[in-house]
Amino acid sequence: MGYANEEIKGAKGLVKKTKRPFVLAAVMLAMFMGAIEATIISTAMPSIVGDLGGFSLYSWVFSAYLLMNAVTVLIYGKLSDIFGRKPVITFGIILFLIGSILCGFSQSMIQLIIFRLIQGLGAGAVLPMATTIVGDIYTKEERAKIQGYLSSVWGISAISGPAIGGILVELVSWRYVFWINIPLGILAIVGLWLYLHENVEKTKPDIDYKGALLLTISISSLMFILVEGGVHIPWSSFSAMGIIAISILFFYLFVRQEKIANDPMMPFDIWKVRSILVANVVSLTTGIMLIGISSFLPAFVQGVMERSATVAGFTLTAMSIGWPIASTVAGRLLLKIGYYKTCFIGGLSLILGSIFFVTMAPSSGPIWAACGSFFIGIGMGLTSTSFIVSIQSTVSWKQRGIATAANMFMRNLGSTIGAALLGGVLNSRIQTYLQNHGSENANLDVVNMLLDESKRSELNSTLKGILQEGLTISLQWVYAVVLIVAIISFMMIWFMPRKE
What pTM was computed for the model? Predict the structure, then answer.
């Protein structure tokens, strides 16, 4: 029951069998669509801000996408356990493509943020469903190897994404970085519907919509105050305290709802398994790290080091190259030394990569930034592969969709919190620095000019120096937080079971 590699009789009595190589190719295409979007938009963001303005909304472009991704991934996971993986991932891809098309037509940062919400709403189904499908059609031993193939998607997108993104931004327009998703998504849908055949028991759906609503309000409130706190809303104000209280209250109501729901969106009983608990908590902390690097590194390379969008993109490429290499190695390490030791090595790599960023100076050059990215990628590859294989081997088919989605949710939640928190740190530190050292015209939005090469050349040397120094110091604060989170991740790995 439920397995996608079974032979299934079609409507005319014909036997249909899932063709695993073709399904894997379709799944990799879907993942590639999401992966290349991540590398391209990070490269393009300085150009987008330079064109549309609104530097103070920089982190909202990431936060809006991640918010919808985080709050929907659990719903999609539950739906896939009821209706099957194929219809859910198809719906997600279509919604993602609609959002991508609209993003390309954005005329302001506000429009872009709204369309990114739509894009994130679809993305919530793509990565967890792709990973779950692999868990369905391959055995535990095969999954360790196949995860390496899936992770190679990140390497391919890492090499092609920044290159394509840089070329599009410099020669055509940043708008094409969104439209490049269209053919990829269509091919993925065709492959899945031709070659993936599921045998799902029809059950009456019992979706926990109340839980989804409570979680959305809680996360949205938290994200809002993390971005705006210390910038437009003083931390000591009643408004800030009220928003924080709303976030805590609705999270409490969400937890209570999940305990009484007939079919909870987040089954907390799976969290009682220590390996799953540790995997989910570390996924939360590494999600914060991931967004901290991918969102703000291009701003440093372009705005402070004064390098091109292409060079900035290739500093992120190093992370996405390290990730698949480590995932491939992890598939073998898991069978030889186990989950704990594999994750332990990954945790050390995360700390080493973070140290590179904390010590990065304008004179360090892009190679230094790329080295930090590479070690972060190694750490992410070793830990994420270990977690997914461990979780999927622990639960049954009926819970595999929601268990995989729960892990993805925690990473997405970490990225959502990270984008908001680190964006708030960046904005507040820049604002404080400019108030202490800048002129009356030196506000957050003037940083837009620093990220646009043509406008940067128009700045007088004094103002440019102030802006670059302010951005450097502010980003060092961001990476100090990333290092602290890396240390917390490493400490949490200590609690993983030593025996498999």
Answer: 0.69
